[in-house]
Amino acid sequence: MSFRRRILFFLFDGFEILDLSGPASIFNTASAYLPGGGYECLYLSSAGGSLRAGCGVEMATQRAANVRLRSTDTLIAVGGDDRPLGAALKDRVLIAALVRAAARAGRVASVCSGAFLLAEAGLLTGRQVTTHWAGRENLAARYPGVQVNDDALYIRDGTLWTSAGAAAGIDMALAILQHDHGDDLMRSVARRLVVYAHRPGQQSQFSTLIDRQASAPGFSGLIAWLETRLAQPVGVTDMAEQCAMSERSFHRRFTSATGRTPARFLEELRFTHARHMLESGAPVKSVAASVGFRSDSAFRTAFRKSFGVSPSIYRTLHAA
User: Fold this and answer.
1) Residues 243 and 149 placed together within one structural domain of the fold
2) What single DSSP character describes residue 131?
3) Which of 34, 113, 162, 197 sits 20 to 30 Å CA-CA off 133?
């Protein structure tokens, strides 16, 4: 007898289409490799009927209260821009439907600002979660019982999965697929859709040095200087001297400008360079030396702590 896992997408007027289409494509493509099984995607809303995504695409939905729930279901709350999301948060029928579905479903998830819907339903209290970087402070302030991770692409906390910006929903869906069916199917689906297979959840939502420079007004010269010294020991005192500031003043101003302490920023700069080298196929030992680690063993430990995978596995997944 065939068995199909159901993915229940909870939608509202003005939802972000990529929050839906990215994960749905992953699960639908996976079903092609699982004859007689796989996944069935259902699209639900508080009242049922036709909804319009933020981009204007119309979507037919079922009334959530009419769906008989199963313990094998996965609930996914999608997000949207501030105005439509704000209206959805006031939709008590939708919130009640989420509470009802979560009580029965075997897995609960959100994409991007869909985390706000889960939080409004009381499903995130005391849990480790993530959301789009632009909304994380608001999420933490509005729902103080929620433990918001600052910078992850996606997080799994038991049966709860949450992802960051819309495209990160693809990464989360691939991770769910990997959990259900293993590495081989996950990689086959990723190859079919020409997407990464897959980015570790703890990978930063930001990935380029340009992002860092743009977010550090007044410190672009320092960042350029640091980029030429990643293999050397550099401390906060060295950075402060380079900027002709006292260490205390430098630490305060730099942290205010970047949202990172100088030490954390330098660590991320080193790992950004390390990832680029690994993606080009460089040996782990050479990468470790190039970014200032005394041994490749110490580098492996630090890299795994930051990204959830070893440098060797990261290189295998991402090398051109």
Assistant:
1) no
2) -
3) 197
For residue 312, give its domain range. 209-318
Amino acid at 303: F
Of the listed ranges 95-99, 152-156, 212-216, 295-299, the least confidently predicted one is: 212-216
| pTM summary value | 0.68
Q: 59-73, 176-190, 213-227: which range is least confident on average?
A: 213-227
What CA–CA distances, in Å, run from 187 to 42, 88, 170, 195, 290? 24, 35, 13, 9, 30
Residues 24, 41: contact at Cβ < 8 Å? yes
93, 165: one domain: yes
CB-based burial label for 83 (10 Å; 0-12, 13-18, 19+): exposed
Residue type, position 150, single letter? D
Q: Are residues 214 and 182 in the same domain?
A: no
- 143 with 45, same domain: the answer is yes
38 torsion bin: left (phi>0), alpha (psi -120 to 50), beta (else): left
Is residue 306 assigned to a domain? Answer: yes
